[in-house]
TrEMBL record:
One of its GO terms (molecular function) is dipeptide transmembrane transporter activity. This is Peptide transporter PTR2B. The chain crosses the membrane at residues 120-141, 148-167, 179-198, 236-258, 264-284, 363-380, 400-416, 437-459, 484-502, 522-541, 553-572. Its main location: membrane. Residues 1-38 are annotated as: Disordered. One of its GO terms (cellular component) is plasma membrane. The keyword Transport applies. Belongs to the major facilitator superfamily. Proton-dependent oligopeptide transporter (POT/PTR) (TC 2.A.17) family. The keyword DNA repair does not apply. It comes from the Eukaryota. PANTHER family: OLIGOPEPTIDE TRANSPORTER-RELATED. It is found in: Membrane.
Amino acid sequence: MAEKQDPVVSEKAVADSGSFVDDHKHRSTSDADSVLANSEGVTEHELATLRHVRDKMPWQAFSIAAVEFAERWTYYGTTNIYNNYIRAPLPPGSRDGSVLPQNRLIGVAGALGLGQEKSFAVRTFNTFFVYVTPFLGAILADTKWGRYKTICIFTVVIFLGHIILVGSATPSSLEHPQAALGLLVLAIFVMAVGAGSIKSNVSPMIAEQYQGKLRKETLPSGETVIVSPSITVQSIYLYFYMAINFGSTGAISASFLARDNGYWVAYLVPTCIFATVPIVLYFGRNSYVKTPPRGSIVLETFRVIGLCLSARATFNPVALIRDLRRPGFWDPAKPSYYHGSELPAKITWDDEFVGEVHRTLSACKVFLFFPIFWLCYSQIDGNLGTVAAGMTLQGTPNDLIQNLNPISIIIMIPIFERGIYPLLRRRGINFSPIKRITAGFFVAGLAMVYASVLQHFLYKTSPCDNDQPSACTDADGNPAASPINVWVVSGPYILVGMAEIFANITSLEYAYTKAPVRMKSVVMAFSQLQTALASALNFALVDVNVEDKFQWLFASFGITATLFAGLFYWTFRDLDRAEIQLNLIGTGERAGFAGEREEGHSEEKN
């Protein structure tokens, strides 16, 4: 939301966040009675004392959420069955990966038969690439095409990738496993370029559809409340994430389609669903709030950082860190720092842009803790599916269980948005983004401890005297499972779902609200890059991502995530205290209006 800067706040946009908090503590009483800039008559005193509620959400946001629903259906409807597709061999008598009807109570679908380690490596490559490519879409959107056009172009790229994927799983392709694997990797590459480039733009575009301002409103009960844009954006992202997880449940049908009809059918269905995305985008084209490209923002950002670093160049790391934290670090990049002809020719920006770069980097620091969160999430994305394969299935496909994660999120989001969060606000409890992310890390750690304990008992109860329950078979070659029912593994999936509500949804909200308008896609891409970094760490852990070491792998992630929860809150506790004031920082005249339409669509929003 592009808001003109409040003079009291904007001076701190380029200051250290800690000094901003200290300065805010000592504001005068008269400041409390001043009207906040670009609000509709709201004073600081009213902001601090009245209850905050969300505004109505625009229908355009739900339209974009429908696009993400279809995209996530196609993504999870394919990736959730990669584990069995790559790991397990073709079932007896099968040419397409399906299980014969008489074996479906105990059988597991499969195709390439490359084993757990290669399956893990390919799936990790897929996750890594999907979350690296958001920078491509972010740069193209912010500098050349705008978000809407970027999304439209890369939907075509994703569709082409799905066609290749279907071709890789046909019976004729599976007769040549190496060729099928090559087509699979090509499909993953193409779809990752498209999906990643969309991800960095859909998230900010959905929130841009709301253009409300901070205002007071009297409810029918007579209570005066603050209608808060930040709470509205929080709710938008909660329901946006709900749409994502509705789409994720497409993997439920994929598991049964693969088991009963083969993998090419399982991949064809999401391909057909994705064909609806261009239709939705076309019919909404004249109603969306669109942010036009802003020029070479990324290049200018690196130039600003380079100027400031060169002015403090030193080989002493301690001195460098001290200089980075010292007020005035950003001055050498400001035009006002120079006099007349001394201004370097490379400076093509104003002082406000330097402040925006600092604000952007301050927002990005929060995301640096997220790789450990995504390492925990990666375990439910594949390894726990292998855990489930060694348990009593009773006709349940082992890769079906992971759909409990999106289902639990769908159930819990309305409870949090309508019940828990409003209750906390009514009681005056500020469950801020920093606190929510902290809670997310703690719950993710708890999920991994649960998984570690479960794996311990699975080793003890497996009929085979080894540490690979998923590979245990009887004398006839049929799966021989532990007596533990497969639904016991649901605990980590549900707990990680709750952790996502606390941490991941909040990270989307944080990336949008704390980033300057012209850098929102780049900041969103940086937040998603943390998933790629987690995948890169997973590559380094390939040797321990094997079934006989799952117990200690899960336990180590659980302990680390819990420690990171405390470290995260301790690091960002000052930002937590200044949450409301940080949300009031504007974006300045140079950035323009967030709701500005792209060229050719300058009319008012319907």
